[in-house]
Write a structure and sequence with these properties.
InterPro entries: DUF222 (IPR003870), HNH (IPR002711), HNH_nuc (IPR003615)
Family: Belongs to the Rv1128c/1148c/1588c/1702c/1945/3466 family.
Mean pLDDT: 80
Protein name: DUF222 domain-containing protein
Shape: globular
Helix content: 40-55%
Radius of gyration: 27 Å
Number of strands: 14
Distance between the termini: 42 Å
Largest sheet: 6 strands, mixed
Number of helices: 15
Pfam families: DUF222, HNH
Length: 418
């Protein structure tokens, strides 16, 4: 922060101790005006960084999660600001073509300090409803301009009420009626692709659907306040977590099912000393090296040595990367996902090799840490690092989040009490 700005803020702060009631009231008005301008500048920076792919290059799938880590915002607040940035700032296509702001009238009012960030948030949400999407482009633009004007005199709650009523008035016919009767089916289709696969299902029996939905809903909740995974992603990973749990703990499953995913590692004979460079899952197709590194942390492995003609020379026996006794030791130490702030229990966590297994990392207690699937992926694909210090895992954030990279540890109740 520059010295001129510091001096200006110090001068404003001095009014609190010496100002009259009139001066204090004026100070509040001035602070709100300054805050609105600062929010406008901040969202401009967010939009520019997102447009440049700055968060993606640092391993983050969304700007909201990156901002949560960088600025210690709650995920809800980070997501709100990212949405506002997207709504009020121009964007650029892949070929460099500029696109206008989605909310041009709100953008002008927000940039001029006439309305607050929360006003823009309300306008964006009102105009993203199904009813608003049914309006003609002309009606939609008129509503956006009207709400931007009304926001200068209404608080966000009042603006929400007005906007909802205005959209409903213009959408008097409502959604187009659908008289079709759903097909009476209970089906689930699993389709294998080159990498991974897809699952599609329909359940006419509400009891069957409710049983599945209840389990997925229970396990698809955000892991932490700054878990920015979209709901479909959380639900998909929840289903995988549930299936993985059943494979590990289901005593009545057929013999082919009661184990974690098995990697069939295809190794060229001449590359054997360099460890695996590709892998094939029984149902999921060929895995990438990055996915292999994650899976190899905590999976069954069957080595298959291939010759130059693609013929198997040797097929090894299935082995568990993490022996059960060592898994129990890691569980006793970490008590679930070791990432600070995460509450995933051991049964929903995986074991990660700190020094990667494929690079010769040993399978021993001082090289292992327990992580949930989301934080396991984060450690593999971003600049977050984990290490064991004084017998306990600690995490180092990327420099762009914390230049000093101050280590962070999870607070464990049994150690805190001691």
């Amino acid at each position: 922060m520059g010295p001129v700005l510091d001096d200006a803020l110090d001068e404003l702060a001095s009014v609190v101790a010496t100002g009259s009631e009139t001066e204090l009231l004026s100070l509040l008005t001035l602070c709100e005006s300054v805050a609105r301008r600062v929010d406008a500048i901040s969202t401009s920076a967010v939009a520019a960084l997102d447009d440049q792919g700055a968060f993606l290059t640092r391993g983050y799938r969304s700007a909201a999660r990156a901002l949560s880590d960088l600025l210690s915002w709650d995920y809800v607040e980070a997501r709100r600001r990212v949405a506002v940035a997207s709504d009020v700032h121009t964007r650029t296509t892949l070929d460099g073509t500029p696109l206008p702001a989605r909310l041009p009238s709100a953008a002008a009012a927000f940039g001029g300090g006439k309305i607050a960030l929360r006003h823009v948030d309300v306008i964006g949400r009102v105009l993203s409803t199904d009813a608003a999407r049914r309006l003609s482009p002309e009606q939609w633009a008129l509503v956006e301009a009207q709400l931007a004007a009304d926001a200068t005199r209404l608080n966000p709650a009042e603006l929400q009420t007005l906007g909802t009523a205005l959209v409903a008035l213009l959408d008097q016919d409502g959604a187009e009626p659908d008289d079709r009767v759903p097909a009476p089916v209970n089906e689930l289709r699993l389709t294998r692709h080159a990498a991974g696969g897809s699952i599609k299902g329909r359940f006419q029996d509400p009891a069957l659907y409710d049983a599945i939905a209840a389990v997925i809903d229970a396990k698809a909740a955000p892991l932490t306040a700054d878990d920015d995974r979209p709901a479909p992603q959380r639900q998909a990973e929840a289903l995988a977590d549930v299936c993985g749990y059943v494979l590990d703990h289901g005593d009545d499953l057929p013999d082919t099912g009661g184990r974690r995913p098995v990697l069939t590692v295809l190794v060229r004979l001449e590359d054997l000393e360099h460890r695996a460079r590709s892998a094939m899952l029984e149902f999921g197709g060929t895995s990438t090296p990055a996915a292999l590194r994650t899976l190899a942390c905590d999976a069954g492995v069957i080595p298959v040595v291939m010759n130059g003609a693609g013929q198997p020379l040797d097929v090894g026996r299935a082995t568990r990367t993490i022996p059960d006794g060592l898994r129990r030791a890691v569980t006793a130490r970490d008590r679930g996902c070791a990432h600070p702030g995460c509450d995933r229990p051991p049964s929903w966590s995986e074991i990660h090799h700190i020094h990667h297994w494929e690079h010769g990392g040993p399978t021993r207690l001082d090289n292992l840490v327990m992580l949930c699937r989301a934080h396991h992926r984060q450690v593999h694909h971003t600049d977050w690092h984990v290490r064991i210090r004084d017998g306990l895992p600690e995490f180092l954030p990327p420099k762009w989040i914390d230049p000093s990279r101050t280590p962070r540890r999870k607070v464990l109740a049994h150690l805190a009490a001691a």
